[in-house]
Specification:
About 80% of the residues lie in helices and about 0% in strands. With about 475 residues, the chain is an all-alpha fold. It has one domain: Up-down Bundle (Growth Hormone, Chain: A).
């Protein structure tokens, strides 16, 4: 691929960020519309749960498959297909006459969304070849992901409160998706792996099965009972599929999931960091939504507006995190993120119906700072040192870890407060624990020894990078 001008590279980055914005918004924006959805579609709690969870479940199951497919058949082609499917899914959501229709349309949205996140990341990785410039670009990308996730409840509350209704949530995606599709065709260059990798259908089924059954079990566990035959069966099937991955994938010459990735301490750490950080985010948003609307009696609009400090901090510090990663490496950002999660959660461990709003706003701002700076170092660590031919798979694993983490955080928080309500301090201490994990892993995975394992892993994956591994020792 010929070298692009700086302006063209920034335009490609902006196009990728457009798609990421709408995908991230749809991860959280629907939560605040729950009561309106129940009323209009005449559905119960179970129907509402699936309206929210169908998106995350399908997205988590397909992200890695989409990333590897893009490396094989072309990243721009896959990205364009994802935009088409996501936009059509959004249109179907906005027209949904029943809960069943909306659940199916949300799943269609997620199929398209799975072709956007990891593929956009691999496009960025291939367009920005300079290490420092790539880190800054990833910082902007990470900031957009964080902004979209944090602003979801705010925009959802504004839509519901202003009378537009829940259908307007999905209308937003249509013009943005169409604009991104036209701009992609005009300005984004095509790229793919230097040598096409053979499909791995068995590996794809095993990986999807691992994520599908695990995510379903995590989501449904609080409602159906963690020890129910259905949930235990899901976890058993997930474990069996995982064992299948571990036994089958190393035997293939070109596996879907190269398990050698995980010999890199930074890459393996980035996977666990993503799970921990997004578990904290998912739990934090769920608990606050329930607290503000059920305990404090706020409307969806006022609840969304009260969380604006979270979105504002993400907007300000998300892009700056990329510059910090480029200048100082990932450790400072991860330390700040871990401390932000921990401090904000501890601040609200003693919630009541009379907790001062000023104290809540301060806690939201601290959490927003932590969440703002965590995306860039996770993504940068996941793809750094990996051969360009596997950038889509690496980015797909990181994105999958985010979705699994979010599902886990919501499930755990929901099960903890099932009989006690969102003021239960145990749930908030668990979120503080997620922050502690981010802090600890941020220190462990960014030292000299960890960097040496990354260089050695890159040399195993691509012999041309052998010199990198030798120089890092």
């Amino acid at each position: 691929m010929p070298e692009l001008s700086h302006g063209r590279r920034m335009l490609v980055l902006a196009i990728c960020c457009m798609s990421l914005l709408i995908v991230g918004l749809d991860n959280t924006i629907v939560n605040v519309a729950g009561p309106s959805l129940q009323h209009d579609l005449h559905t119960g709690v179970d129907g509402l749960q699936w309206i929210i969870d169908a998106y995350t479940l399908v997205l988590a199951s397909l992200l890695m498959l989409s990333g590897s497919t893009a490396d094989r058949i072309g990243r721009r082609r896959t990205f364009q297909l994802g935009l088409v499917v996501f936009t059509l899914g959004s249109l179907a959501c906005s027209l949904a006459p029943t809960a069943g229709w909306l659940i199916a349309a949300r799943a269609l949205q997620a199929i398209g969304g799975s072709m956007l996140n990891p593929v956009a990341m691999s496009i960025i990785t291939n367009v920005f070849t300079d290490r420092a410039e790539r880190a800054r670009a990833i910082g902007i990308w990470g900031g957009v992901v964080g902004i979209s996730m944090a602003l979801g409840p705010v925009i959802g509350g504004l839509m519901i409160g202003s009378g537009v209704g829940w259908r307007g949530i999905f209308w937003i995606n249509i013009p943005v998706g169409l604009a991104a599709l036209a701009l992609t065709a005009r300005y984004v260059p095509e790229s793919k792996a230097a040598r096409a990798r053979r499909p791995d259908p068995i590996g794809q089924v095993l990986v999807a099965g691992t994520l599908l059954f695990l995510t379903y079990g995590i989501i449904e566990g609080p409602h159906r009972g963690w020890l129910s035959p259905e949930i235990l069966g899901c976890f058993a099937l997930s474990l069996a599929a995982l064992v299948g991955v571990l036994l089958y994938e190393p035997r293939r010459t070109e596996p879907l999931l190269d398990l050698r990735f995980f010999r890199s301490v930074p890459f393996a750490g980035a996977t666990v960091l993503a799970v921990s950080a997004f578990a904290g985010m998912g739990g934090f948003l769920l608990l606050n939504t329930l607290y503000l609307q059920e305990v404090r009696g706020l409307s969806a609009l006022h609840a969304g507006l009260l969380t604006l400090p979270m979105g504002a901090m993400t907007l300000i510090f998300g892009p700056l995190s990329g510059r910090l990663v480029a200048a100082k490496g990932p450790r400072p950002s991860l330390v700040i993120a871990g401390l932000g999660f921990m401090i904000s959660a501890v601040m609200v461990t003693d919630l009541s119906g009379s907790t001062p709003y000023g104290w809540l706003i301060a806690a939201y701002a601290v959490f927003g700072l932590g969440f703002a700076v965590v995306n860039a170092p996770i993504t940068n660590t996941a793809v750094s040192g990996m051969p360009d031919s596997q950038a889509g798979v690496a980015a797909g694993i990181a994105s999958t870890s985010r979705q699994v983490g979010q599902s886990l955080g919501v499930a755990v928080a929901g099960s903890v407060i099932a009989g006690s309500g969102p003021t239960d301090s145990t749930a908030w201490w668990i979120i503080a624990g997620y922050g502690g994990a981010v802090l600890l892993l941020g220190i462990i995975t960014t030292g000299r020894w960890a960097r040496a394992t990354a260089a050695a892993t890159a040399a195993r994956l691509d012999p041309d990078q052998q010199k990198v591994a030798v120089s890092a020792r």
